Amino acid sequence: MRKYFRILGVIIALQAMFCGVLFAFSKNFSNKDFSFILESSKDFTSGQNEFSFIVQKGGKSVAVENLKVTFFMPEMPGMPKMSSDSTLSANGDSYKGSVNLAHGGTWQVKVSFSFEGKKYQAKTSIDF
What we know:
The chain has one helix at residues 2-18, and strands at residues 25-30, 35-40, 47-57, 60-61, 65-73, 82-85, 87-91, 94-101, 106-115, 118-127.
């Protein structure tokens, strides 16, 4: 019986992986009113990166307006500030995006959007 459950578990995991359900990178963060999920099928790297972004209110995905996700790295000695705006498009209850990151390190992520006529912001960071 244990062997059966192990095999079943492996089959489910493989099926989820091939269907894109599992993500190599997933980050949950929130502000006072909303929670957010930033996911990518592979870890973020230098160069072009594809990701999905979900905005939730009360545990349910919501559509927002004027969504902007900016990745930036503050100025450091010997290195200027770097910033990269992502390109986003609505995809069902999530948004698909792409961003070009110049190199590895800690990138700050700033999110801004409008919902029901009010403007909101949130911040997090990613390391690679």
